[in-house]
Amino acid sequence: MRYFNTSGPCDPAEHYTVMRPVLIAKGREKVRRGRYFTLFAPRQAGKTTYFQLLMRELGDEYTPIRVSFENLKTVSKEVFYQASEHQLKRELSEYGITYHDNIGNAFQLALFFEKIRHQIKPVVLIIDEFEGIPDCVISELMHTFRLIYHQKKYHALHSLILVGVSTIAELVVSSASPFNIVDELKISYFTDEEIREMIGQYVAESGQEFEREVIRAICENTKGQPGLVCGLCQYLTEEVATDISKPVTMAHFYRTLTHFLTEKYDKNIINIVQKAKEKKIFMMRLLFDEKLFPFSVHDPDMSYLSAHGVIENVNGYADIPVPLYSKVLITAFRPSFNGEGGHYAADVRETFGEYLTQDGLNISALLNRYSEYVRRRGFKAFDTEHLKEAAWHYSLDGFITFFIGCLGGQTFIEVPSGRGRTDILILYGNNKYIIETKIFNSSLYFEKGKKQLAQYLESEGLSEGYYVVFSSRHTEADTLYSEEEINGKRIFTYVIRTCFERPSE
User: Fold this and answer.
1) What is the DSSP code (8-state) at residue 189?
2) Residue 215 and residue 487: Cα distance in Å, rounded?
3) Who's near 111: CB < 8 A, 6+ residues apart?
4) At 18, phi and psi to the nearest 5?
5) For the whole model, what pTM was predicted?
């Protein structure tokens, strides 16, 4: 039986694989036209799997040759050409062709493609990890490919594909402007249909069903990021839901989500967190501020984070398109110890009984206790010096997590669509509760948030939810608590005042 692959390219004979026929057809058409183009996407987005599937499709009419510039960034010009010669000759040998001349410079590289033109079908050269090219050779190499492009009748090289992260286009233009690669092909993430198709391959071979809600959760959390999709499915089927006679359930999914958020050393997630921490100030604003940031590749923070797959241009604005990335980043930026645990329960005789009902949890009692805690602790309840925009969220998150943990439940961060929205999802027994948090900016956004929560409750099949809004504008004379019904959903609103006198130095 095949399995979900999380290391390297997928082989359809060994792994569950999304075949992507439409995307393959686009690449094949560019090759047919003899185009030189870039193939770009962030790490673990399926680039290698894609071009290997494309190479299989090209085998009848063309000679696909693949070389890699990985680990060549700092080598000398001489070593670079030695490595290139070795790879090119090794690839030719796969087609039964031996090339005896040396390839020690740009001229000899062009001569290589000229001399083999009568021995082989038109060559499609795929250069993987192109951004690993040494600075000392990029200009002459790109000029050489430009020369070959304009003299195709003398050379075997028919099409050139440069594979790398999205910065490759900037690299080519800035370092070798005479060679203007205008064509590009971006490897998009999986669609929901493609995710269902791949999981369907597993179900057909194993006989183990996935509950519909689990597939929906995978689609919503990953937005089709190939590395995450395969990673979640691999852990679900091999480590959590190991009894294939029983379906994969949401309980299994939440165990897997906890693992990915707090335990797993996933190379994709680690890379995202590392890159985001390098731009932490910007990322905290993006995660927690309702302000929209127009996307621009000329902004150094946005350009860097976009190149590494942390953010994308979403309808003209910078955003984190993958909710699981947002959850991981919120978790990663969370302080491991905020010093407030001893102040959550003011009474040493606290038994936590008031937060339980016959059916589950009394969230209203818990939020009333939080309001009292904030009034009692004042400015000290929030780490505004280090967390700034996120201070309010992490204060509530720490408080709720403390009590729910004592009661034997679980808490998760949810990131529904909508700038500045972060929800706390509470699981207790078979019950699910949602607390949405926001910062008060205006009455318009305040009311809009209630409708957003009602829509989210509808998607989760819940009848009521809790709306916690932090405000420095409200006074004790204002309404700080309300209950109302919006679109058939019961909304409990708590306004937490944050206008405190700062402690003296």
Assistant:
1) P
2) 27
3) 101
4) -85, 115
5) 0.85
